[in-house]
Structures are given as C-alpha cells and as structure tokens.
Write a structure and sequence with these properties.
134 residues; alpha+beta; Histidine-containing Protein, Chain: A; 16% strand
Length: 134
C-alpha cells in the first residue's frame, strides 16, 4: 500500500482542492496582516497604567530596553551610588532604595528622566539619616 504524500494536493491536485488551498492562503494572509497592523494611538491606551494591568509583548520588550538603558547610565555615573532598585512599567520608571544625600536623589531622578523612552519618574528613593551623636 502506498503511503499518502504530504504534498500530494500540490503535486496531484484533486478537482476543487486548488480553490481550498487558495482560500486557506488568503485567510492566513488576511489574518496575519490584521493581527500585526499598527493601531492608532489613543489617549486611553497610550497612558501609563498601574503595575497590575496586563501589558503587550512589545510593551514588555520596550520596558526592558528602557530598564537596561537606565541601569547602564547609573553604572557609568560616578555620582549615583547606593543600592537602587529600578522598575519600568509602561514607560514609567520607579526608583526605590537608599541614597546618601538629597542631591543624589535628585541626580538619580534627573539621570533617569534623560533616558529615551521614559515617560515619567516615580522617585521613591530614601535619604539615609546620618546618626550623629554628640
């Protein structure tokens, strides 16, 4: 008994199979194009959302790139020091951790604002209290 060929509809077409193949190809093409088409930006969807709402894959990738840019700038800057945790969600950078002075806190926020793609900075950095005993 001869094994059925996977490409038989293309090599030995049955009457009417060509239309089925063309219809499937067109359906695939149309569904692929509409799934990847850019949508117009609207204020509702372009505004940053709270960290709990779902994000698209492209937004997650954009946030990861922004995060890498922020951390690279912080590593290369001599003035920004301390254990600083950075999170990016929909273009909003969240800074958490401890710094030595108020000027370091401001400088870190300014450095983060200067990164391409950052929409807003939520500066939640805390300044260490100097325990000076008389």
């Amino acid at each position: 008994m001869k094994k059925p060929c996977l490409f038989c509809p293309f090599l030995n077409p049955v009457p009417g199979s060509f239309l089925v193949i063309v219809a499937l190809f067109v359906l695939l093409l149309v569904s692929g194009l509409t799934g990847c088409s850019p949508q117009a930006a609207s204020p509702v969807f372009s505004a940053p959302t709270s960290p709990g709402t779902p994000r698209s894959f492209s937004t997650i990738m954009d946030d990861s790139i922004i995060l890498a840019r922020i951390k690279t700038r912080m590593i290369s800057d001599d003035f920004v020091q301390g254990p600083i945790d950075v999170d990016v969600y929909n273009g909003v950078a969240y800074l958490k951790g401890m710094v030595e002075t108020d000027s370091q806190k401001r400088m870190t926020a300014d450095l983060t604002r200067g990164v391409e793609g950052v929409i807003r900075v939520e500066n939640q950095l805390l300044v260490k209290q100097n325990n000076i005993t008389p």
